[in-house]
Amino acid sequence: MAIAEPTNNSPSYIDKLVVPGDVVLDLSSMSNQTIKLGGGLRQDCDSITAMKAGMLRFSKPNKYWVESSQKRYVPSAGDAVLGIVVDTKAENFLIDIKGPALAYLPVLAFEGGTRRNIPKFEVGTLIYVRVVKANIGMNPDLSCMDASGKAAEFGPLKDGYMFETSTGLSRMLLSSPACPVLEALGKKLSFEIAVGLNGRVWVNAAAPSTVILVSNAIMNSETLTSVQQKLMVDKLLQRTQ
Amino acid sequence: MEQRLASTWRMSVNEKKFIESSLLSDLRADGRRPFDYRRLTIKFGREDGSSEVQLGNTHVMAFVTSQLVQPYRDRPNEGTLSFYTEFSPMADPSFEAGRPGEFAVELGRIIDRGLRESKAVDTESLCVISGKLVWAIRIDVHILDNGGNLVDAANIAALAALSTFRRPECTLGGEDGQELIVHPPEVRDPIPLIIHHLPVAVTFGFIGKESIMVIDPTHLEEAVMGGRMTVTLNTNGDVCAIQKAGGDGILQSVIMQCLRIASVKAGDISSKIKNAVESFNTERALRKIKRHSSSSAVEVSEPAQKGGTELSRTHVGRLNSTPEESGVGQSNGMEVDGKILQQETSRRDSGAQSFIGGPSSW
């Protein structure tokens, strides 16, 4: 077999494909360094193992996670997602974030939230939220504040159109140098976009035709290379003008 | 309760509002205009009488099987046509396994009515022995993915499967001229069904306060719309069935407009089905030429032969069980079946293949 023996030093796995069971990090070889684990990784004593197949990513200084593309979303702490309000309870809003269980958004988890000013959301409201806690076997906890307690763009989204894509595409849209589709669209059109890591994307613009064009261009771009994406957007724009 | 809440699919207010408001300027969320049909692809399996239809994101599979049974008493020389649907929970989380929902029943009834009432399939040609044996044609439709407008997709799948289905030829023969011989496909080419015309279903949705009409609604539009109407017509412009079950009321003039649009769409769709069937048939003919040239090799191989006989045995087993189910003329049926069994076993050398339609094997 031509497959190389897996080595134990961790950097070799970064930006490589991992499969469930791969020991991607060995904590015993790292001296008192704290690391943060994202989705798809788990800790067994001194070793960090992959739980799903995908690309292992690392972001400085100490975050590790596994990236893959799927229709279902597995909540993990720190993700910004788009949720739909399902129900309102005394303490929490019940939010659907495409995960295996409904998520709780405490009614006080808003900037300057007190018992007096609890926001009212009708069922079906789309909100941009952050996952705070995501433990296995528990309903995830959400918040409409960033870590420092500011509203920071989180909250309900008005009007516009929401569509669902895979989690892989939503990560691609968020990647920084801007994703080619968004770059090409943004040169010609003005629109607002909110991308949730759970595969939901919200688009708003002045004219409905712009919203339709942008959302369909994004949905079509999933399997295209960056050059193809640009060509597709150019063609779409030509047809409408 | 919690689990169920989590697994149902839900829609945000934003989507609902957007679909309704953009329709006011004749735009639809997927970029179509109100009277555009989604892209339709028809594929066929290796076996005769199986089809796979994709209409946008909607994915439907159909296959047709046949069986020799006793005819109904009041129709001694007509074969039967029955229609079954299977809604997989994989297609849509709201579908429950095993239990057909309200919509599953409605879908089955619409398609069944379109095919049966318009006499699209010639049932009299399915008679083998008057009052004793006729072919029962069974259409199974599986919904694989729900992207909206399941009725049209399932109807096209059923039509495509019926147009490629072939039943084995059978003749009376033997010493006393009363034995029924079912010829395996290698001996005599199976016969296609006689289909007089293709009744194509076209569905309209009515959205919003103004009841704006859209053709071929997606699952999002279905969630928003106030009413739906399905019109079944053929290329000649004959209306075979109309289904308007509840929902928003619509004007007579709107119905007439729907019929005019539907007849154009039905023409497009049936020509698409015909083209697909034609190309399948030419491919099938080409395949047959190949099969004859390599037939000697097939017969030598041991396992293939075994598989063949096993299949034919199971088929005979099925035949035996049918008269018992119907409960009438049991002894008569058994006698005939016994003779079929003889025929089958005597022909085992030819490596008889299963001739009961296509099991899902692609």
TrEMBL record, chain A:
In the record, what terms sit under GO molecular function?
Answer: RNA binding
InterPro entries according to UniProt: Exosome_RNA_bind1/RRP40/RRP4, KH_dom_type_1, KH_dom_type_1_sf, NA-bd_OB-fold, RRP40_KH-I, Rrp40_N_euk, Rrp40_S1
Any Pfam family: Rrp40_N
Ranges for domain K Homology come to 160-207
- Is RNA-binding set as a keyword in this record? yes
Primary localization class, coarse = cytoplasm
The places in or outside the cell where this protein is found are:
Cytoplasm; Nucleus, Nucleolus
Which BP terms in the Gene Ontology apply to this protein? CUT catabolic process; exonucleolytic trimming to generate mature 3'-end of 5.8S rRNA from tricistronic rRNA transcript (SSU-rRNA, 5.8S rRNA, LSU-rRNA); nuclear polyadenylation-dependent rRNA catabolic process; poly(A)-dependent snoRNA 3'-end processing; TRAMP-dependent tRNA surveillance pathway; U4 snRNA 3'-end processing
Q: Which key words are in the record?
A: Cytoplasm, Exosome, Nucleus, RNA-binding, rRNA processing
Task: List, alphabetically, the CDD domains matched.
Answer: KH-I_Rrp40, S1_Rrp40
Residue ranges crossing the lipid bilayer per the database entry? none
What are the Exosome complex exonuclease Rrp40 N-terminal domain coordinates in residue numbering?
A: 35-72
Q: May I have one GO cellular component term?
A: cytoplasmic exosome (RNase complex)
Q: Write out the similarity annotation.
A: Belongs to the RRP40 family.
What's the protein here called?
Ribosomal RNA-processing protein 40
According to its UniProt entry, this protein's organism is: Daucus carota subsp. sativus (Carrot)
UniProtKB/TrEMBL annotation, chain B:
Q: Where is this region: Disordered?
A: 291-362
User: Which GO terms fall under biological process for this protein?
Assistant: exonucleolytic trimming to generate mature 3'-end of 5.8S rRNA from tricistronic rRNA transcript (SSU-rRNA, 5.8S rRNA, LSU-rRNA); nuclear mRNA surveillance; nuclear polyadenylation-dependent rRNA catabolic process; rRNA catabolic process; TRAMP-dependent tRNA surveillance pathway; U1 snRNA 3'-end processing; U4 snRNA 3'-end processing; U5 snRNA 3'-end processing
Q: Which UniProt keywords apply?
A: Cytoplasm, Nucleus, RNA-binding
| Compartmental location | Cytoplasm; Nucleus
Biased composition, class Low complexity, residue ranges: 294-304
Gene Ontology CC entries for this record = cytoplasmic exosome (RNase complex); nuclear exosome (RNase complex)
Q: Where is the composition biased (Polar residues)?
A: 319-333
One GO MF annotation is: mRNA 3'-UTR AU-rich region binding
Domain annotation Exoribonuclease phosphorolytic: ranges = 37-168, 197-263
Q: Name one Pfam family in it.
A: RNase_PH_C
Q: Which SUPFAM superfamilies match?
A: Ribonuclease PH domain 2-like (SSF55666), Ribosomal protein S5 domain 2-like (SSF54211)
* Highest taxon in the source lineage: Eukaryota
Query: Keyword Nucleus, does the record have it?
Result: yes
InterPro entries, per database record:
ExoRNase_PH_dom1 (IPR001247), ExoRNase_PH_dom2 (IPR015847), ExoRNase_PH_dom2_sf (IPR036345), Exosome_comp_Rrp42_subfam (IPR050590), PNPase/RNase_PH_dom_sf (IPR027408), Ribosomal_Su5_D2-typ_SF (IPR020568), Rrp45 (IPR033100)
Family under the similarity heading? Belongs to the RNase PH family.
> What is the protein's given name?
Protein ECERIFERUM 7
Q: What is the scientific name of the source organism?
A: Daucus carota subsp. sativus (Carrot)
